[in-house]
Amino acid sequence: MSEPRAPAARSSAEADLAFLRSIVEGGGRPPMTLAICYLAGGLLYGLQCLFHVGQAFGLIRWPDLANLAFIVGISATFLSILTWAILRDRKTSEQNRGPMAGRTMNAAFNATGMANLAVIIVFGVGAMRDQDFAVWLYYAAIVFALQAAAWFVVWNLKKKLWMLATSLGGWVTAVALGVTVREPMIYLGICTVALFALFALPGWVMFQDARRAG
User: Can you list the positions of beta strands (E) in the chain?
Assistant: First the structure.
């Protein structure tokens, strides 16, 4: 009775080995949606930080309504790009999504996104309750810390040096933001550089990799 099960057991073992090999080797096309979100988010919110820097130095003196429209426009543009990217990704066939390593990479960042949502709620409610805007500013530090953890997971899967650099940069940024929440200009400067260097730049690299693989 046990002999007929041997081929099935062997097939299962081979599938398990293939699964582990795909993770260790880290092959596959980088997720295009993730690349676009990182690139667009880094550029758009980096631009918003530059806008605030200009305001702080008196270079930008717009009416309050215009300032609000600009900030809302940044978020609306990002959400539009995100929606387009998700719809585009849904049209991609299962074959083009790459092996398990790529899916594991995507799962790591999806989990990070879920954690970010919880952080937004916690710090947003805390800032309103305590009437202290600095409490809200800790949110960005936690976001970079979570991103650093996600990139460290991805580096372990794919072993690309730029991924490790992004992870370490995120960790340093998280600590720097956390200790400068009472220093607005320093905090804003760190945020501006980090958005371009740790979001837009990795997004551009992933975008180019996805295009080449596509």
Answer: none
**What helix, strand, coil percent values describe the chain, rounded to 5?**
85, 0, 15
Give 30's contacts (C-beta < 8 A, 6+ positions apart). Answer: 98, 102, 105, 206, 209, 210, 213
Rounded to whole angstroms, the Cα distance separating 118 from 141 reads: 14
% pLDDT > 90, the chain: 39
Coil/strand/helix, residue 183: coil
Q: What is the 3-state secondary structure (H, E, C) of 91-146?
A: CCCHHHHCCHHHHHHHHHHHHHHHHHHHHHHHHHHHHHHHCCHHHHHHHHHHHHHH
Q: Does residue 30 register a pLDDT over 90?
A: no
Please state the pTM of the whole predicted model: 0.74
pLDDT digit string (tens) for 43-86? Answer: 999 999 999 999 999 999 999 999 999 999 998 998 888 788 77
* Token pair for 18: 């293939």
C-alpha dihedral, 39 to 42 to 47 to 50, nearest 10°:
-150
Token duo for residue 156:
């372990």
185-204 confidence digits (pLDDT tens): 999 999 999 999 999 999 99
Query: Which residue in 166, 156, 152 sits closest to 203, CA to CA?
Result: 166
